[in-house]
Amino acid sequence: MARRADENARVTMPRRVVQKPLRQVGKRLMMALGVLALTVLIVYVDREGYHDNANGEVDFLDAAYYSTVTLSTTGYGDIVPHSDSARLTNILLITPLRVLFLIILVGTTLEVLTERTREEWRLNRWRSALREHTVIVGFGTKGRSAIQTLCATGLRKEQIVVVDPSSKVIEAANADGFVGVIGDATRSDVLLRAELQKARQIIIATQRDDTAVLVTLTARQLNRGAKIVAAVREEENAPLLRQSGADSVITSASAAGRLLGLSVLSPSAGTVMEDLIQQGSGLDLVERPVTKAEVGKNVRETEDLVVSVLRGHRLIGYDDPRASPLQLTDRLITIVRAAPLTPLTTPTPE
Fold first, then answer.
1. pTM confidence score
2. CA dihedral over 55, 59, 62, 67, signed as positive or negative
3. Strands 227-232 and 201-204, how do they pair?
């Protein structure tokens, strides 16, 4: 069973050119018929130089028959070229056409081998160049939304790897331009295919809380220094995720419930909160370093609207007297006007 699971886990990369199989087959068929028709024409024009053992003469049907068995390298020997011109034509024209015909027939196999070689080369180059990337476990609604936020902040698609057990989901990720790994993320061999040991940050957005716990344990074992952010449905499972190695845990059900309650009490406040958590539209929450010009100033004297100050491992509110003056090593949580976000394809429901 372990062997079978290991074989099913594989890395898939975005395809650069999508080819239609029927069009490719039709194109090859037309090329083969064209080579056959040209050979028949050549043989029929020089039919006086050929000899048929049956009746000595070569007509159009005999020319077509000779061309077919010659191109297919069958060669029964009942029709043969006997004149010098016919033999020279076979050397200079018929033989190259035979080779071309065979290439067309085995073209599909050659294309598959070439594509596999090219894909293997791309995969090896991708593995060797991948560093400090982001691994997304789960490509449902939460995973897609997380990727949208990351891309809105400037993260390149080449720096994102999606892990999901569904091949159709990974195909959707490939269509969006992301590298995907098909397999169970609770298995260390699957996460190693995603080069998780070299990742800078890991987002766990699975559909089940128990799966999220197992993935977090495995991911933390493989990468001690990566930042792990996990999502759970039930708030009671959040401490278990933190004990498993998650740096931050988001409770999706509770967060949605609080947003619903806030929207009931104040629809305008709910709209603002939804705008803040939706990266790339309206207002965004952004973490940025303190500039040299801001060092020594009060938090209210900055150009952006500061919400909190991150000093070391302490998060200080904007109204806390300890937040000011600002230090060069501080990081600011600010509210800024967002740039438009490029959407991905329609998310699949979880």
1. 0.60
2. positive
3. parallel
